[in-house]
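User: Could you check the structure of this?
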Amino acid sequence: MTAGKFRIHREGYKIIAGVIFVLTLLNITGWMIWRDTSVYHYIAVGASLLVLLFIVMFFRAPARPLEPDQLLIYAPADGKIVVIEETYEKEYFRDNRLQISIFMSPFNMHSNRYPISGTVTWTHYQPGKKYHARSPKSSELNERSSVVVKSESGTEILVRQVAGAVARRIVTYSKKGDKVSQGDELGFIKFGSRVDIFLPVDTEVDVQMFEQVRASRTILAKVI
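Assistant: Sure, the predicted structure tokens are below.
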């Protein structure tokens, strides 16, 4: 897979096929109804193409090759930084951690990547509510999936996929014991959502609030 090559994520195949089927059916029905008023049919076709383009772009999965670096922590998702704060992480670490949260709008690429290389030491899925992904409540109360990766140096980092108000489903490919490389795909979240990453409190942060970041491209922090 070469850098810059456009491809569709496998999670989108069935949804895109379903959207094409429904839009085709609607347009055929519209043509039968409006065959003598072509302007309405052209409007319907144009709107259908825009909907299909949006769905296809949502499920894009661009190649993001990188050379793994044990001293760097890369962004696990595309989006906007909405949280940088010290907080108590009660699900796994049960102590204070530096939390960085990335909000993904429906227009962002939604494939999530590993921020570091190492071994998956813990995974946990929790069903939940549908608060907006920007809400502080979403990290603890929404549907979420958490993955802990332990680097060769022994540092553990928790990555949490959090579903938003309109997210359909979180997909996580991680399994305990997996050996993973920085930039490999961790999972996918269907429609609006966020990703939280929990780091040691003394981590040197390289991003600012409201900064736009890209998975496997933007350096979030440096390991001390």
